[in-house]
Amino acid sequence: MRKKLNSWLVMVALAAMAVVAFTPAFAVASEDPVGTAAVFDIGMGARALGMGGAFVAVADDANAIYYNPAGLANVEGHKVTSLYSTLYGAGNYIGAGYAQKNVGVGVIGLMSTVTEKDEYGNPGNEFGYREGALMGGYARNFGMFSFGGSLKLYSQTIPNNEGFGVTGDVGALIEMPWMEGFRLGAVARNVGGTAKWQSGYTDQFDPEYVIGASMKPIPKLVVAADFDISNATGHVGAEYKIMPQFAVRAGGVFAEDGDMRFTAGAGFSVQNFQIDYAYQGHTALPDSHWLSLGMSF
């Protein structure tokens, strides 16, 4: 599947939507999808995004359903999270998730609307682009090992054409009892499944294989690193709790083509409520800002 390997390609898809919206053929006939499964490459949760997306071996909150479903086995209590970003000012990206021990659900969505204009600049018809997924997962502990899986229902809507598909993730985590705070993780994303559109166009989901490690060199610090084998992309990140109610984060994404994106973020908690913010720099596109609201009970 022509899946977006880096988040900046999401902007390309949205820009393509704006271009084709000005062509009469787009308004008359249904088209093949303009990029597919970009929603699976963006992220979920400002905490994880502030750490450069290095979360496969961390996965200890409601974002586990997105990064590594095996982490659901280690969730304590009940956790709710949400995510919002304007995504380079070209569209809106939202996410929400819930997790308790062994079980998690989530939803993610990418939305953009472009307005057709005539040769005089007068606004005309509006065309919308929608892409999203519903996710549900389950995991169990087996001693020092945790295994989990998730099912993902995918959809994409462009003018005169809708597409649907089903795929899934499987993941594993290993806790090292002789090294407190040290974890190894692995996840296979988008394993199997095909998306099909009303126009008759079909495309298989591209699988993605990621390995990761995390550790706590000191009690208040978590450092993590992921490597996306399929896309030759590295993710590194760290989280330091200055105090129980306040944490700072930093990280980076390093692609094989030399594209480097640095991230930063912070988290604030008040009683059972959590506010997280993440920033990601880009070279050619506007910087990204992410906001998450969460709750634990």
Explained architecture:
The chain is mainly β and 297 residues long. The chain has one domain (8-296): Outer membrane protein transport protein (OMPP1/FadL/TodX) (Porin, Beta Barrel). It has four helices and 16 strands. It has helices at residues 8-20, 24-28, 46-50, 64-67, and strands at residues 78-85, 92-100, 103-117, 123-142, 145-158, 161-175, 183-189, 194-197, 202-204, 208-218, 221-228, 233-243, 246-255, 260-270, 273-280, 288-296. Strands 1-2-3-4-5-6-7-10-11-12-13-14-15-16 form a 14-stranded antiparallel beta barrel. Strand 3 (103-117) and strand 4 form a beta hairpin. The longest helix is centred in the N-terminal third of the chain and has 13 residues, at 8-20. The protein is globular.
Q: Short description, anyone?
A:
The chain is mainly beta and 297 residues long. The chain is built from four helices and 16 strands. Strands 1-2-3-4-5-6-7-10-11-12-13-14-15-16 form a 14-stranded antiparallel β-barrel.
